[in-house]
Amino acid sequence: MAPFLDSHAHLADPAFDADREDVIARARSAGVRAVICIGESLDAAGRAERLAESHPGFLFHTAGVHPHDAADFEHARDLEAMRAHVARGAVAIGECGLDYHYDHSPRDRQRRAFAAQLALAQELGRPVVVHTREADDDTRAMVVEAGAAGIRGVLHCFTGPASLAEAALAVGWYVSFSGIVTFKKWDDVALLRLVPDDRLLAESDAPYLAPVPNRGKRNEPAWVARTVAHLASVRGADVDALGRLTIANAARLFGLPNAVLNSPAGADA
After folding, report:
1. 92, 62 in Cβ contact below 8 A?
2. Range(s) of the domain holding residue 123
3. Residue 155: what are its φ and ψ, rounded to 5°?
4. At 99, is the secondary structure helix, strand, or coil?
5. What 8-state DSSP symbol labels residue 195?
6. Edge to edge, what strands does the sheet with 153-155 contain?
7. What share of the chain is helix, strand, coil (3-state, %, to 5)?
8. Is residue 215 part of a domain?
9. What is the dihedral of CA 57, 250, 245, 132, to 10 degrees?
């Protein structure tokens, strides 16, 4: 059983209300060393924080405002709430970013909210978890500027283009792949090989995007094992070694405790 780390899961989502503890137990049994529990809104961040408190050393939470909700972003109020989350242990700012596919919020408001959260990450010395969809040019410009200012982060659930990954990697960022890369329609093998070993992360994005053969079902962290196995196969790597890379890389990016690196797979933290 290869150990690995789920760098992005929405375990606070209501989709898990009926059996969340069972999902967490299955994750431990599958070899998951830790899960980054995403707070894509301040409400979700509050739920994620409570989860992390109930599973110390295994669940770690983030706090941010998703681009879908950027229209309602209130600079002073929301940044102060994120500061409070970081003071209580949040390991990153986000999920934030740009989404020009759905355009649930005006694009100028998305950019404003994203820029504010990047600035907060710089102020607090925390990494940023970034969502980007059909906003390649603006994401590239903002990530490159942030990277030049010393801000680090991850492009989560990345599907391309390679040029955006290359720009992010050039300024010290990480790239995370989800179960999408196991889908039959996925054909960009070169992208999966592009990311250096020391910048590669894997994620579930649970409850979304379950990998094959569970595609279409509610996703969960235990199934990141299939994504890790696929990445290892494509990259010509040993599964165990690649799984351990996902742990070491996430621990470095998010500042996780040494216990995450050293605990046996599946063990209680």
Report:
1. yes
2. 4-256
3. -85, 105
4. strand
5. S
6. 93-99, 128-133, 153-155, 174-177, 200-202
7. 50, 15, 35
8. yes
9. 140
Query: Would residue 145 count as lying in a domain?
Result: yes
d(CA 111, CA 127): 18
DSSP code string of 147-181: HHTT--EEETT----HHHHHHHHHTT-EEEE-GGG
Which of 56, 37, 57 minimizes the C-alpha distance to 47? 37
What gap in Å lies between CA 209 and CA 150, rounded to an integer?
31
Q: Is there a domain that residue 265 lies in?
A: no
Cα–Cα dist 170/189, whole Å? 20
Instruction: Write down the pTM of the prediction.
Output: 0.96
What is the distance between the alpha carbons of residues 237 and 105, in angstroms, rounded to a whole number?
41
How many domains is the chain built from? 1
> What does the radius of gyration of the chain's CA atoms come to, in whole angstroms?
17
Residue by residue, pLDDT tens for the chain (269 residues) are: 789 999 999 999 999 999 999 999 999 999 999 999 999 999 999 999 999 999 999 999 999 999 999 999 999 999 999 999 999 999 999 999 999 999 999 999 999 999 999 999 999 999 999 999 999 999 999 999 999 999 999 999 999 999 999 999 999 999 999 999 999 999 999 999 999 999 999 999 999 999 999 999 999 999 999 999 999 999 999 999 999 999 999 999 999 998 888 766 444 43
Measure the CA–CA gap between 23 and 29, rounded to whole angstroms. 10
Tokens of 25: 């137990």
Q: What is the CATH number of the domain that holds 150?
A: 3.20.20.140
H-helix or E-strand spanning residue 261:
helix 258-262
The answer to whether residue 267 sits within a structural domain is no
What pLDDT is stored for residue 268 in this prediction? 41
